[in-house]
Amino acid sequence: MSPFRDIDLHAIAHQAMERYGFRYQFSKNMMREVDRLDPKKMLRSGRVDLRGLLWSSIDNVDSLDLDQLEYAERGADQEILIKIAIADVDVFVPRGFEIDRHAEHNATSVYTGIETFPMLPLRLSTDLTSLRAGEDRPAIVIEFVVLKNGDVRRGKIYLALVHNRAKLVYEEVGAWLDGHGPFPQAFTDIPGLEEQVRLQDEAASRLKNFRMEKGALELESLEAKTVMKDDMVVGLVLPSEDRAHHVIENFMIAANGTVMEFLEKAHVPVIQRIVRVPKNWPGIVDVAADLGTRLPAEADVKALSKFLLKRKSADSVHFPDLSLTIVKLLGPGEYMMLEPGKAPVGHFGLAVSDYTHSTAPNRRYVDLIIQRILKAVLDRKACPYSRKELIEHAAWCTDRDKMSKKVERFMQKVAAAVLMRGRIGEVFDGIITGSSDKGIYVRLVEPPVEGRIMGGGERLSVGQNVRVKLTDLDPYQGHIDFERAREGGNVKSSLKGRRR
């Protein structure tokens, strides 16, 4: 029997939440606040009734906290009008209530793979404030027009009532759009939905192509997802991104840009989402040079974008590893208060200058702040937050964003250590993903496990392929240790049928 068979993964997740300053339980008073909420609030007047439109959502198969819906219609001169409905969370989360204070403190939902810790109680995030299929819901609608060349003309923002006709799933719609999946059943059940999704895909393709021409970076994630069964870790899988993901990604970028422009024109302070000039551009230059490409000495997003597209075409198998390396060298995103009339910092990786987070108010507190500012502008009221408050919120939400990733990465290491039990001494193919004062880090090709090289890694550089031997692990601490393997070692990176 494995010495880790009876490990309490949920207890470890709770400890990790506490260690990084998160609250993982909702108080009884909070739940009483939720129970007192009146769902009929959403039927009050003053909203545009758009329940007759063919709204739909695309999300993960297990997602219940649906933040946005999409609708498209063809216009003149090959234009496509897009409407994005964002859940009106503010209706049910009044500022200053204990529910709001809890959300403000955590600032984000945390997804550990073992257990999800929602920012809001489930009765809110998966019910009253979720744009669930078959339900009438209050929303904030963001409109923009996608032009023939993929550029965007910003449109209106207003309060509305919406009705989700179908919750679609990324993998199912993506496989169908890519031509290797079956016809989704929802398209048979709901007349016009197939044409609606095809039009959304056409608009998203235009948006993506236009952004790529401007230098947007096309990167692939290597953040493995823990697969659980009966509270046991049974695998790690790398999520794949398909055309359905690209539809939502490009729509949300355009919607957030529309919100940013709307608030800038209203001359109110706002929180922007930024990625500065890369913290380690010389490191990116070195990685490109090792692969035969010379990048400029000064940060150049278009040159980097062209390099990545070239590498993806030349070696799609190892492109996710390169993506991970580039992401680490780019540095993290952050939130920053923007004064009215000041030039925004911009988002280097997305190649956009005006950007915020406003499309996931069930999951991110910044989005709820932006929602309240939007509603104040629509009501012709003063901004509900002072500049000092927005500066403090931006700093705190940046911190919580970073800490949530620490929790999620730690729990991924815990899950990986449990998965790797019984495999000490085996040799694996890997790629160097990081280098710091704490050591050299490697990610295995299969399974996608990351750990530290405990010896012989001094001359290794980020992005380098390497063979390593698993020497030790501790799931309670999330430690997985490797050492460089001697050339010619027996690699066992894919052991199908092996009992774990």
Could you characterize the architecture of this molecule?
- This protein has helices spanning 9-19, 28-35, 98-106, 122-128, 170-177, 185-189, 193-214, 243-265, 281-290, 301-314, 319-330, 365-378, 387-419, and strands at residues 48-49, 55-59, 68-74, 80-87, 110-111, 116-117, 136-146, 152-169, 225-229, 232-237, 270-274, 334-338, 427-436, 439-444, 450-453, 465-474, 479-484.
- With 500 residues, the chain is α+β, with helices and mostly antiparallel strands.
- It has 3 domains: 24-268 and 362-376, no CATH class; 281-331, no CATH class; 420-484, Nucleic acid-binding proteins (OB fold (Dihydrolipoamide Acetyltransferase, E2P)).
- The strands form 5 sheets. Strands 1, 2, 3, 4, 7 and 8 form a 6-stranded mixed sheet that branches. Strands 13-14-15-17-16 form a 5-stranded mixed β-barrel.
- Strand 9 (225-229) and strand 10 form a beta hairpin.
- The protein is globular, with a radius of gyration of 23 Å.
